[in-house]
Amino acid sequence: MPDVLLTVGTRKGLFIGRRRDGRWEFDDPHFNAQAVYSIGIDTRRRTPRLLVGGDSAHWGPSVFHSDDLGATWSEPPRPAVKFPQDTGASLERVWQLHPAPAHSPDVVYAGTEPAALFRSEDGGESFELVRPLWEHPTRDRWVPGGGGEAVHTIVTDRRDAERLTVAVSTAGVFRSQDGGASWAPSNDGVSAVFLPDPNPEFGQCVHKIAQDAGDLDRLYLQNHWGVFRSDDAGARWTDIGAGLPSDFGFAVAAHPHRADTAYVFPINADSDRVPADHRCRVYRTTDAGGSWEPLGAGLPEDDHYGTVLRDAMCTDDGDPAGVYFGNRNGEVYASADDGDTWQQLASHLPDVLCVRAAVIG
Questions:
Q1: According to the model, what pLDDT value does residue 1 have?
Q2: How confident is the model at residue 2 (pLDDT cuts 50, 70, 90)?
Q3: Contact 245, 252 (CB under 8 A)
Q4: E strand spans, 189-308
Q5: Which tens digits make up the pLDDT trace of 96-147?
Q6: Are 97 and 49 a contacting pair, CB within 8 Å?
Q7: Long-range contacts of 244-248 (CB under 8 A, 24+ apart)
Q8: How far apart, in whole angstroms, are the C-alpha atoms of residue 225 and residue 267?
Q9: Which residue from 40, 132, 155, 338 has the least number of CB within 10 angstroms?
Q10: What does residue 16 show for φ and ψ, rounded to 5 degrees?
Q11: What is the Cα–Cα distance from 123 to 91, expressed in whole angstroms?
């Protein structure tokens, strides 16, 4: 069983776990009293670099990095992510830290609130605004949702550094084929049942996107009502929610190696944000959404009310895959066998906001 690094961002700090020889151990919390909404694990280096978006109520948001698995942390002397003065905007939060694939070894993307994409070429120590998305002609018609307006998901293509996909709440999916020089809405087939026109060009409330391991043009999307799949890199989406107890939810993750395999955590409803049927269950598809199976071995059997947020479920890069999720009850669960069986790793943590894991060593 390989060693695994598990990072858990909560509303009051970062918790780091290590699995060694099949046993889990957790450090004392890092960034006490700071909300940690974003974590990136950059495995392109000999020792993984950890990137953390911290949010201090006193000092404001910042991006920290560690090159020794969290033993020490560095913060740049100037803000790593800062809006240019001419935008008239100020950083509210870093929602996403996404190391690019190996073809771009020092590139890291950051998604922020207000909704913007930033790019780093020095491993996440400094970032520049990707202006074409910020200046998109539809921007003045983007309307913040209940969770604000943010770029919260970034998908890069390991075949082509020019292909980028982002999800914006509540503007929907936007794609670039030229490295961010231009962007187009990409929401065809994604419904917006909460709008007068349920099929707009943009304005969907996309909660998360994940990329298939086998077919990189295949994407899975969890919407504010609706689970969808695209087989053409987001040009067109198809509803695959049949067979789930609810198609509302926040999180979606893909298996790191097995094609057509993805995971969701259904929530009852937007007006009742607890696990579907009050059951703590991850649902897995192994046929690209043609069918779904509940995964509950080792998870609580009693009524359960822990909501899993959009970045609070992930997979590592093992095979079989580790699958992980945390919830707003402060519980963290892990599976070492593709989701077949689970164990609880932590309880009574602050609200879990994001979870990231990687095989190391």
A1: 80
A2: confident
A3: no
A4: 206-211, 219-223, 227-230, 238-239, 248-254, 262-269, 272-275, 282-285, 293-295
A5: 999 999 999 999 999 999 999 999 999 999 999 999 999 999 999 998 877 7
A6: no
A7: 244/276, 244/283, 244/292, 245/276, 245/277, 245/279, 245/283, 246/276, 247/223, 248/224
A8: 10
A9: 132
A10: -120, 125
A11: 20
Q: In whole angstroms, give the CA distance from residue 136 to residue 327.
A: 35
- Which of 244, 258, 334, 239 shows the shortest CA–CA distance to 8? 334
Cα 319 to Cα 13, 199, 295: the distances in Å are 30, 39, 18
Q: Tell me the whole-structure pTM to 2 decimals.
A: 0.97
- Domain boundaries in the chain? 3-360
Task: Name 83's Cβ contacts closer than 8 Å, sequence gap at least 6.
Answer: 89, 90, 91, 114, 116, 129
Q: Is the backbone peptide bond immediately before 114 cis, with ω within 30 degrees of 0?
A: yes
DSSP state of 134: H
Positive/negative CA dihedral, 328, 114, 176, 145: positive
